[in-house]
Amino acid sequence: MRVPDGYLPHFIACGAAAFSTAGLGWTVIRTDDWRPSLGASAGGLVALAITLANGRSGGHLALAALEAAVAIGLPVTLRQVGRAGARRAGKAARGVKG
To answer: I want to staple 34 with a disulfide (CB 3.0 to 4.6 A). Which of 3, 28, 40, 78 is the partner?
Structure first.
């Protein structure tokens, strides 16, 4: 893969972000409390604004849709997973099967 001239620093930053996400993700993505994931949502909204400021082509709109899905979907998913875990823990504490 060849990086266009002048974009190498951006490419390196994206690579570093991709590798750091796995290690740092566990501090944000927790199922016991979904509120820390709102930081990822805020970042997704900033990325969405930057993407739409750069253009409105089909590629830009596809990327914006993906960023919006992550910004909205991450806290909603973690909230639902956390609530399901709390229900299971409550049933286990009461001794209810199922």
So the answer is: 78
Q: CB within 8 A of 39, min separation 6: which ones?
A: 28
Amino acid letter for position 22 = A
Is 85 strand, coil or helix?
helix
- pLDDT, mean of residues 74-98: 74
For the whole model, what pTM was predicted?
0.58
Q: Give the DSSP letter string of 27-78.
A: HH--SS--GGGHHHHHHHHHHHHHHHHH--SHHHHHHHHHHHHHHHHHHHHH
pLDDT exceeds cutoff 60 at 19: yes
